[in-house]
Write a structure and sequence with these properties.
The protein is an alpha+beta fold. It has two helices and four strands. The chain has a four-stranded antiparallel beta sheet with strand order 2-3-1-4. Bound molecules: copper (II) ion.
């Protein structure tokens, strides 16, 4: 497993946090996701054999949020 912190732009409320968490929880290969507003970031644990960081970032960005 690999754990990484992704800084996310555009989250303004707990609804946004919930949306991002839903995206991450539903992403194949992600085993754990913690999303916070302050600081605006996600701590994601995933299986590198099943998911890659760029794909996870793309999913967040497809949901309407900004990732570095
Ligand atoms: Cu919101």
């Amino acid at each position: 497993m690999e754990t990484t912190i992704i800084t996310i732009g555009g989250m303004t409320c707990m609804g946004c946090v919930g949306s991002v968490k839903r995206v991450l929880d539903g992403f194949a290969g992600v085993t754990q996701a913690e999303v916070t507003l302050q600081p605006a970031q996600a701590t994601v644990t995933f299986d590198p054999a099943k998911a890659n960081l760029q794909g996870i970032k793309n999913a967040i960005s497809d949901a309407g949020y900004d990732v570095a």
